[in-house]
Hints:
This protein has helices spanning 3-15, 62-68; strands at 25-26, 35-36. It is built from two helices and two strands; from the N terminus they run H-E-E-H.
Amino acid sequence: MDTTTMRATTAGRARRRPKTYGGDRICGHGVCETKLSRYNRNEYCFQHAPARFPRMRGEFTEEYMAKNS
Ligand SMILES: [Zn+2]
C-alpha cells in the first residue's frame, strides 16, 4: 500500500466542502412554506420550481389530453 498516495487523496477530499446555500430558506412561492434544502440551489421547492418541460399541473386540459393520450 502506498501511504503517500493515501494521504494526498484524503487531504484533497477534506478541503473540498460541499457548496451550500444557507440554512433556513423556504420556497420563494408566496404562500408556500416548504423548507428548502441547503443543497438545493433553486429558489423554490420542487413543486413550484419552474418546469423545464411541460408537465402536469393538477388539471388536465382537453388539449393536453389530446396530445398525450
Ligand atoms: Zn413551494
